[in-house]
Amino acid sequence: MKALIVSQIGYDGEILKRGKFSERTFRLLLVQEENYLTIGILNDQMFALHNFKFSDECDIIGEIEVSDDMVKKALAFARAKAEFDALKETLKGLLEKRTPTLDK
User: Fold this and answer.
1) In what helix (H) or strand (E) does residue 21 lie, and over which residues does it extend?
2) Could you report the per-residue pLDDT of 1-53, keeping only the tens digit for each?
3) What are phi and psi of 67, to 5 degrees?
4) R_g of the chain computed on alpha carbons
5) Which domain holds residue 74?
6) Are the C-beta atoms of 38 and 50 separated by less than 8 Å?
7) Residues with Cβ < 8 Å from 30, sequence gap 6 or more?
8) What is the pLDDT of residues 44-80, one digit of tens each?
């Protein structure tokens, strides 16, 4: 399956001592045929999601062929992540409940 290699400037989430986020350039795969499936690596962890918001500073580096197996697994990961993210408010509620202290 065809995918675009995209380069985008992003922020890695680490706040520098001056109070600013550190800026990095990320390279991502974009599979347009699969609802703009985006596959990448962030902090040494693979991720996959749909409808990634690309900035104006996005550059298309080229186009490559990606294995159907990788796309299939990325799609499954993105679906599972979306379903899990839907439980966010439930988890917040559980974490905010007071629990009895465990006896040692």
Assistant:
1) strand 21-31
2) 999 999 987 765 555 555 566 677 889 999 999 988 999 998 789 999 987 77
3) -65, 145
4) 18
5) 2-95
6) yes
7) 3, 4, 5, 6, 36, 37, 38, 52
8) 899 999 877 777 778 999 999 999 999 999 999 999 9
Residue 91: inside a domain, yes or no?
A: yes
Would you say 10 and 23 are in contact if contact means Cβ atoms under 8 Å apart? yes
In which residue are the tokens 């080229």 written?
62
Domain count, the chain: 1
Tokens of 64: 């490559």
Q: Tokens 């985008």 — which residue?
A: 8
b/e map 55-70, b = 16+ CB within 10 Å: eeebeeeeeeebeeeb
Q: CA–CA separation, 37 vs 85, rounded Å?
A: 17
